[in-house]
């Protein structure tokens, strides 16, 4: 009798744990603050392998900069405060 009770109890607890964790996973929206104001992004931010991926365009424009994308070269240039940053996809260096 005790064995059946423990099996039922464990089943109920695991079911509750699964339902709560799936509900939390669905409602976890990443909010980014810039100067204590929420940053509105067109593309939702994602956490993958403990890294946060954010739309570069939204961040750069919120900082008052300009971003340009050259798809043929896989090159992104960012201009902020008179400085230029060049990022190339699949290239670990930064200019």
From TrEMBL:
Residues 34-93 form the Copper amine oxidase-like N-terminal domain. Coiled coil: none annotated. InterPro entries: Cu_amine_oxidase-like_N, Mao_N_sf. Transmembrane segments: none annotated. Pfam families: Cu_amine_oxidN1 (PF07833). This is Copper amine oxidase-like N-terminal domain-containing protein. It comes from marine sediment metagenome.
């Amino acid at each position: 009798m005790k064995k059946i009770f423990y099996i039922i109890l464990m089943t109920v607890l695991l079911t509750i744990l699964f339902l709560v964790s799936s509900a939390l996973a669905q409602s976890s929206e990443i909010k980014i603050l810039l100067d204590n104001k929420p940053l509105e992004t067109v593309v939702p931010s994602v956490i993958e392998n403990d890294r946060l991926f954010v739309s570069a365009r939204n961040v750069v424009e919120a900082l008052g900069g300009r971003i340009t994308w050259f798809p043929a070269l896989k090159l992104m240039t960012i201009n902020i405060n008179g400085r230029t940053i060049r990022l190339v996809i699949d290239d670990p260096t930064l200019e």
